[in-house]
Amino acid sequence: MRLPHPVRHAARPLALAALCATGFVAGACGSSGAKSTTTSGPDAAVLVALAAGASPSRTDASGVEWLCRPGAAGDPCSADLTTTVLPASGVPTVQRASVPADPPIDCFYVYPTVSLQSGVNATLHVDPAETSVARIQASRFSQVCKVYAPMYRQITVKGLGAGARTAVAAVAAYAGVQSAWKDYLANYNHGRGVIVIGHSQGAGMLISLLKRQVDTDPTQRKLLVSAMLLGGNVTVPTGQTVGGSFRHIPACTANSQVGCVIAYSSFDQAPPPDSLFARPGLGVSNLSAGTSVVGLQVLCTNPADLAGNSVTPLSPYFPTRSLITGLGGLAGLTPPALPTPWVTEPQLYTGQCLSQGGATWLQVSAPITPVDSRQIVNQTLGATWGLHLVDVNIALGDLVAVARTEATAYAHRG
What we know:
Number of domains: 2
Radius of gyration: 21 Å
Low-confidence stretches: 1-39
Structural class: alpha/beta
Shape: globular
Largest sheet: 6 strands, mixed
Number of helices: 8
Strand order of the largest sheet: 3-7-6-8-9-11
Strand content: 15-25%
């Protein structure tokens, strides 16, 4: 869609206003935010979004484009959840999920680095990669919550590969997430509890959002059912459950605890010294300005065993061939050709939080027996990445189960 010349110029001061509002930038901002603009208001915000590639059918009056929004046509977070259960031996069965018409809480999901566009920051055009990853990571939470997921100008795969983890690129990405959060609170939340969910770059954006908008605001903290921030390097003081990334949001240590954070990075062996995950101040930490390392460790909370540190069976849910369009394989898996969009493999993986040599991670193991022919995930991107590509799916059943218990606890909190 080609917009008239004046609208394209109007986007520049509005973008500056958005960046000043994030708190990431100064200098170009006066004491009241951005310098004066010539165009403002909701209509201008919509035009700015459309100029950045947003779809008119997905963009609301605040200029936020929603990848997932309850009731929207083609919502990828409201997908078929029918699952084939593959046992180690014996006959597969089919598992069907129940999705309530009006779940008691909301979820606010921010997707990981998936954009294959050529720029450093993606446009707001919805590509198959965003639709696919929302189905793969977020749609199963529809059993528990209404899922909202904004499009944002994330740093692309190419941008990260070129080392473009710059403040300017991160600000452009974060500005969209913060605008969407404020839009969600003002127009969609209606006082409901909310779980925030993010992976990789999405987790980094949400760490920044929680620091700036929620951690310091008791009113917003009261709405927080939990934060599931996977592969994003949330930090805590060594041996503690609160501090580091957040002052007031502790680690979840029980399924019924609310207002807390679940975080981990998954590996099948100890992370190397230059790992992008599981070590404070390295790799993905740059996306949330998490450069501090002294006295800190990366948080690991095992969603299958929040109360302890035992070796516990994980409940994975992976997409089959029909669901994975736009993303390719996940961690070396060839998606099976099954009649259902999902597959789960009970009693295949175990998880345990481990700490060693300055790293803290979710150790994923697969004690295969001779009769078990099921596929095993592996480190397709190398040891520095570990099992990052499947951080969500390796324990997706456990995460949804925790969300369900938390939703009940939140409804009955004092």
